[in-house]
Specification:
The protein has a single domain, classed as NAD(P)-binding Rossmann-like Domain (Rossmann fold, 3-Layer(aba) Sandwich), CATH 3.40.50. It has a 7-stranded parallel sheet, sandwiched between helices. The protein has 264 residues and is α/β, with parallel strands linked by helices. It has 9 helices and 7 strands.
Length: 264
């Protein structure tokens, strides 16, 4: 059987790096994509020699997607078993006070970056039996997060995109899945929370919520790529939020009105 292959955006750090390491350890060929060339080199150095290629990619640019996937296909022998659309940015703070350019950038990276990847990657996915498009959504895509409105909006959007494409692409043999992590130990937690001078990480700990190790997300990505569940919640907070959104939406609404806390 030809070597299975995964293409990962946001591969220079965090979840993307952890997933790359895990899949490479399990014998997969890996394509690492990111705008951060130095971070890509660091991730590449963690992988077995000859098991990966790097691709400079701004996910907002569809032409760059087409070029990166063509290069990856040449290296993988024309297959892509998993397209992991993971690249994303966090934006927090009062919505009405956030500069429009920042709102637009979040939408461009977190939503349009996934849209471009799905559109450009479909042909290669459809040519690979049993392929999966895996998208990083968020617990913020389960119930809207006060203080991170535009971020939540993009994560709801990719959740909806995954549900639609999982139905639309079934006839082509392509499955679509999401990861919905809560607070993961990545650099996004080190950003200011809600326009304050405090880090999201500090607010999470103050609220008594857990920070899930990034390795747990990598294992969840492996399970999602090989399983039947459409949305994989990662971390206790995400699982509790999923339950509450279904059975206690009123309580969540009241909580949202009382607090603002960044989420990833």
């Amino acid at each position: 059987m030809p070597q299975q292959a995964i293409f990962i955006t946001g591969g220079a750090s965090g979840i993307g790096r952890a997933v790359a390491v895990l899949f490479a350890q399990r014998g997969w060929r890996v394509g690492l994509a990111d705008v951060n060339a130095a971070g890509l080199a660091e991730t590449l150095a963690m992988l077995p020699a000859g098991s990966a290629t790097t691709h400079k990619l701004d996910v907002r640019d569809r032409d760059q997607w087409v070029a990166a996937l063509a290069d990856f296909a040449a290296a993988s022998g024309g297959r892509m078993d998993v397209l992991f659309a993971n690249a994303g940015i966090g934006t927090s703070g009062p919505f009405a006070a956030t500069p429009p350019a920042e709102l637009e950038r979040c939408v461009a990276v977190n939503l349009l970056g996934v849209v471009h990847g799905a559109h450009a990657g479909f042909e290669l996915l459809a040519a690979t039996p049993g392929s999966v498009m895996l998208i990083t959504s968020s617990a913020a895509g389960i119930y809207g997060t006060s203080g991170a409105a535009i971020y939540s909006a993009t994560k709801f959007a990719v959740r909806g995109l995954a549900e639609a494409l999982d139905g639309e692409w079934a006839s082509a043999g392509v499955k679509v899945r999401t990861l919905m992590p809560s607070f993961i130990d990545t650099p996004l937690l080190d950003q200011p929370a809600g326009g304050s001078n405090q880090q999201i990480r500090d607010n999470v700990r103050r609220a008594g919520l857990e920070i899930t190790p990034v390795g747990e997300v990598a294992e969840a990505a492996w399970a999602a790529a090989h399983g039947t569940v459409l949305h994989t919640r990662v971390g206790k907070t995400a699982r509790k939020l999923w339950f509450a959104a279904r059975w206690m939406p009123g309580a969540l609404r009241r909580q949202a009105q009382r607090s603002r806390l960044g989420r990833r």
